[in-house]
């Protein structure tokens, strides 16, 4: 182990505090600064054992000797020394900030702790400071040495050396010497209170509680201190002026305190005189007292350490207690929170339970209801099955009934035909027996049941309704494949079924080409069954309803003639029949625009009352006399003529036409939509209308004359102009007077099943030849029945008579 530097220094080991420093400045910095702070007035000598570098190559045989090795060793030593110097400079720079005197003692050696012990022994080092452990091991509870080097030094250093072991700048352990009692005078003072330690501990004791505990322990210490001090004061003599008692009293726990080293040997070596002897004795006493004082202080410090250790344990326990208390408090809080939460949860649970209970009860209720419903359902299902069986049964019965009904209907139709044929035969026989003059007295009109009418009108389907007048509704119907119009008359009046049927039967005998044929009746429902006329009424033509095109003036004259002829026919009947309600809605038009007057003789079927006074077609004289007369029909006919001429609203039309005739300006009132009216014919027809509408019924013309005049107007214009006024134009019969087969005026007109009227001989021959189709339409006829057309027959006779 060789010296690097400082070994040869003439150090005063009593005045020097040796501080062991490591290779790493940072590691020993705190220890060094602690020494500089605490040993003011002393020299600080750095003690450094350097482990020199020893390259492995040195052991190589080739390099084991020779100049190279020597040279290399030198270089390494130089580098090492340089390093050591730099290191020492770093430490000295640290100390340069303090005012302590510094020195350094460096040796080289492979084992640091042995080097330290060697140095202590070699130089008789008395005051030595070194690290107890590296800083990272420090804790405030630390009391033991951790570093192997420190432990080694503590064990092996010579006894005369007083050693302070530090960690992170805090004194951890002090190794006193056996001679400390004798060395007391030379022990270096710790001039500075270890305020860092105090601060550090204070920081640790953050809580006020801990501070209180600290004060408590301090007071204990102070009491002990006072006690000791008291003892000391009793024992000690005057303290040395060099003694740093303040330092001692202010030292930190366990810090060794002592007076300024003042070895008697170092005081001086004057000659021994009695006074000197006294002086020496006194000084010796003082020194002993001082030493005792130091010892006492040391004991105190040891006691303090022990107490502090105990206090620390106490604090630890207190800490634990506090911690436990805090934990208990926290747990208490948690517990109460938990309890309240639990209470709330229990309340919620109770609520939930109640709700669940309610739901269960509801559920049970529903289940009970469900069971009832299921029971009902089963019952209903069985009932449904029964009903379905019944329905099936009834359906079968219904089908059977329908079959029966069908067969009954067929039978009924057959019987009806048989009945009709029988009547015809009876009539024929009667005619044979009583001669030609005998008219058929038996009714050929058919009676229908309500069921048949109901069936025919599709149960009085509203869409089949043709119209509704003041004497009831009219429905379109289908009876035995014939289109019919069923007029439902009101049931009021005194007529019984028989009376009603008889009157209808009388009316049904009236057969005229311009009268709607009555085909039958249903006394049960008080309805009259008419032949269906498909082309609307004259009213529709005047109002342009149903898109009916305007009638040409020729058709209007023809229609006037046909109305007149039908009226004449009704009036000529025995007993005469008054229409009593003649107006354009009663003038129906068939597919050839041939006139068919409906509703004739209705007043005989139901009591006619409440005739509308505002109706301009009604004879004003009726409102005077209260009686419908033949002239009343003439008046109504006159009003229809005025409408045919002018197609104007009836109010004021009579006055306008009169005016036009008087002013010889008939064209002003003629309806142009009918084409170019021949003025003469227009004027003539206007005169006839004016005459028909005379207020006095007696001044109204005879219909036969009127008919003749109108018929004359029917001839084509060319024909009429070629005849002189006294010459009669050739007799041209109306087209419907001609038999469609023979094309001659009919003598015995018969209505066939196709609805057309034929000469009896022509149609019988047609049928006799095996035809079952219509000569006009070529469609199959329902039957071969032929009904006399009396109305037409009479009209033809009338026509013959006129000429
Ligand atoms: N045989 C028929 N064929 C076709 N349509 C008919 C027939 N009879 C009547 N009608 C229609 O039925 C409608 C109603 O006729 P109905 O005679 O009951 O009343 P109206 O003449 O209009 O009025 P009211 O009888 O009150 O004077 C007529 O306007 C006509 O269009």
Detailed description of the structure:
- By secondary structure, the protein is an alpha/beta fold.
- It has four domains: 152 residues, 3-Layer(aba) Sandwich (Rossmann fold), CATH 3.40.50; 104 residues; 268 residues, Transferase(Phosphotransferase), domain 1; 64 residues, 2-Layer Sandwich (Herpes Virus-1), CATH 3.30.40.10.
- It is 51% helix and 11% strand.
- The chain is built from 23 helices and 18 strands.
- The radius of gyration is 79 Å and the shape is rod-shaped.
- About 10% of the residues have low confidence.
- Bound molecules: adenosine-5'-triphosphate.
- The site of adenosine-5'-triphosphate (ATP) has 19 residues, from β9 and β11.
- One of its GO terms (molecular function) is ATP binding.
- It catalyses: S-ubiquitinyl-[E2 ubiquitin-conjugating enzyme]-L-cysteine + [acceptor protein]-L-lysine = [E2 ubiquitin-conjugating enzyme]-L-cysteine + N(6)-ubiquitinyl-[acceptor protein]-L-lysine.
């Amino acid at each position: 182990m060789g010296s690097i530097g400082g070994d040869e220094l003439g150090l005063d080991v009593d005045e020097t505090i040796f501080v062991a420093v490591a290779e790493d400045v940072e590691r020993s910095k705190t220890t060094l600064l602690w020494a500089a702070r605490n040993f003011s007035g002393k020299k600080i000598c750095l003690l450094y054992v350097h482990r020199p570098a020893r390259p492995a190559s040195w052991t190589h045989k080739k390099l084991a000797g020779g100049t190279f090795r020597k040279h290399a060793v030198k270089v390494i030593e130089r580098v090492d020394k340089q390093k050591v110097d730099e290191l020492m400079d770093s430490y000295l720079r640290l100390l340069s900030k303090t005012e302590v005197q510094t020195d350094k003692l460096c040796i080289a050696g492979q084992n640091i702790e042995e080097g330290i012990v060697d140095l202590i022994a070699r130089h008789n080092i008395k005051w030595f400071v070194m690290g107890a452990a590296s800083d990272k091991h420090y804790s405030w509870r630390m009391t033991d040495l951790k570093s192997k080097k420190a432990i080694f030094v503590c064990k092996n250093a010579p006894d005369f050396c007083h050693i302070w072991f530090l960690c992170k700048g805090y004194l951890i352990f002090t190794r006193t010497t056996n001679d400390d009692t004798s060395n007391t005078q030379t022990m270096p003072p710790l001039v500075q209170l270890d305020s860092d330690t105090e601060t550090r501990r204070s920081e640790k004791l953050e809580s006020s509680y801990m501070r209180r505990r600290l004060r408590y322990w301090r007071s204990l210490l102070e009491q002990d201190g006072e006690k000791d001090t008291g003892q000391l004061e009793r024992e000690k003599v005057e303290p040395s002026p060099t003694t740093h008692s303040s330092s001692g009293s202010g030292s930190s726990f366990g810090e060794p305190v002592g007076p300024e080293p003042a070895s008697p040997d170092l005081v001086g070596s004057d000659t021994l005189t009695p006074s000197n002897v006294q002086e020496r004795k006194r000084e010796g006493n003082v020194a002993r007292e001082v030493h005792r004082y130091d010892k006492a202080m040391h004991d105190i410090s040891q006691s303090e350490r022990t107490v502090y250790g105990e206090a620390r344990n106490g604090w630890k326990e207190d800490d634990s207690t506090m911690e436990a208390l805090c934990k208990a408090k926290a747990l208490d809080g948690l517990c109460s929170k938990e309890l309240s939460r639990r209470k709330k949860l229990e309340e919620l649970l109770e609520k939930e339970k109640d709700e669940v209970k309610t739901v269960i009860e509801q559920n049970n209720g529903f289940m009970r209801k469900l069971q009832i419903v299921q029971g009902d359902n089963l019952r209903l299902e069985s009932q449904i099955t029964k009903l379905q069986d019944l329905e099936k049964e009834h359906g079968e019965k219904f089908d059977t009934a329908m079959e029966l009904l069908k067969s009954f209907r067929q039978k009924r139709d057959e019987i009806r035909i048989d009945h009709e044929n029988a009547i015809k035969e009876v009539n024929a026989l009667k005619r044979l027996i009583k001669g030609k003059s005998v008219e058929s007295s038996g009714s050929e009109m058919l009676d229908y049941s309500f069921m048949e009418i109901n069936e025919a009108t599709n149960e009085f389907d509203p869409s089949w309704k043709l119209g509704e007048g003041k004497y009831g509704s009219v429905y379109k119907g289908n009876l035995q494949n014939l289109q019919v119009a069923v007029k439902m008359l009101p049931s009021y009046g005194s007529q019984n079924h028989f009376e009603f049927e008889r009157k209808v039967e009388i009316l049904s005998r009236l057969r005229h080409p311009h009268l709607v044929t009555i085909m039958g009746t249903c006394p049960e429902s008080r309805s009259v069954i008419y032949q269906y006329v498909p082309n609307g009424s004259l009213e529709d033509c005047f109002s342009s309803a149903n898109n009916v095109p305007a009638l040409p003036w020729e058709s209007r004259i023809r229609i006037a003639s046909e109305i007149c002829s039908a009226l004449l026919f009704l009036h000529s009947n025995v007993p005469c029949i008054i229409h009593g309600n003649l107006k354009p809605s009663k003038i129906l038009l068939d597919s050839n625009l041939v006139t068919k007057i409906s509703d004739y003789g209705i007043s005989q079927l139901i009591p006619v009352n409440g005739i509308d006074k505002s109706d301009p077609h009604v004879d004003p004289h009726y409102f005077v006399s209260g009686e419908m007369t033949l002239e009343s029909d003439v008046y109504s006919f006159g009003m229809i003529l005025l409408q045919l001429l002018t197609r104007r609203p009836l109010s004021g039309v009579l006055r306008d036409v009169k005016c036009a005739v008087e002013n010889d300006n008939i064209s002003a009132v003629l309806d142009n939509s009918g084409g170019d009216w021949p003025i003469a014919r227009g004027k003539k027809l206007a005169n006839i209308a004016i005459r028909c509408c005379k207020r006095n019924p007696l001044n109204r013309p005879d219909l036969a004359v009127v008919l003749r005049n109108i018929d004359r107007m029917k001839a084509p214009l060319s024909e009429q102009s070629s005849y002189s006024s006294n010459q009669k134009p050739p007799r041209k019969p109306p087209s419907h007077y001609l038999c469609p087969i023979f094309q001659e005026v009919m003598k015995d007109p018969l209505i066939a099943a196709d609805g057309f009227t034929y000469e009896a001989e022509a149609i019988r021959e047609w049928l006799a030849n095996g035809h079952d189709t219509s000569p006009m339409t070529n469609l199959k006829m329902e039957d071969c029945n032929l009904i006399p057309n009396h109305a037409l027959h009479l009209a033809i006779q009338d026509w013959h008579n006129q000429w």
